[in-house]
Amino acid sequence: MNGFDRPPPITLASNRQEFKRGAHLRNIMTNPLDIEFLNMNGEATTLRHLGDDTTSSWVVVNVASACGFTRQYAGLQTLSTQDGVTVVGFPCNQYGAQEPGTHEEICSFTESKFNVNFPLMAKIDVKGDEAAPLFQTLSTSSDSSGYTGDVRWNFAKFVIDAAGNVARFTSRDEPEDLV
User: Where in the sequence is the domain holding 147, given as residue range(s)?
Assistant: First the structure.
């Protein structure tokens, strides 16, 4: 099978208001791996850029340092060491103000407590009108219960393959059960 045998993934605008603002032009047929966001240094990057030639699965997680699910950093770090897996964390302070720290504080905490060395991006919004375009796109996928829409809590997870197919997981899903 060559690359032309499979159609690209299709992503729809998540609501009419977004469609009217033209977001549909930005999101239709966009592979989530190619949507830009900022790293902690304020530089634009993509998931594809953060992976390497061996990456077959990208795990995207909205993270927080003071959450009941913060312990999942350990499982995410272990997952990030598997061949073909790139884990990317997106700090978010939208849920119970559980990620109030600066970029430096977040990195220091995750490194000292969980030995995290997978990439952590700039703090972002993952839901609502100011949600980052990557999470707007990822939120159009459904989890195993059929839920589609805004991320519900910290440590929601999305697994993306090289073709841009997205599998959505909840905060309660453990990292070791993803890939």
Answer: 51-174
The catalytically annotated residue of 59, 60, 61, 67 is 67
Active site residue 92: no
The Cα diameter of the chain in Å comes to: 47
In a domain, 46, yes or no: no
CATH of the domain at 130: 3.40.30.10
Q: Looking at the predicted structure, is the pLDDT value of residue 13 above 80?
A: no
In contact, 178 and 169? CB cutoff 8 Å: yes
Q: Is 75 inside any structural domain?
A: yes
| pLDDT tens, residue by residue, 44-95 | 999 999 999 999 999 999 999 999 999 999 999 999 999 999 999 999 999 9
pTM of the full predicted structure? Answer: 0.82
What torsion, rounded to 10 degrees, do the Cα atoms 168, 156, 120, 9 define? 20
Helices and strands (DSSP H and E) totals, the chain = 6, 6
What is the model's pLDDT at position 125?
97
Say how many domains are in the chain: 1
The answer to whether position 126 is within a domain reads: yes
pLDDT tens-digit map of 133-153: 999 999 999 999 999 999 999
Q: Is 135 domain-assigned? A: yes
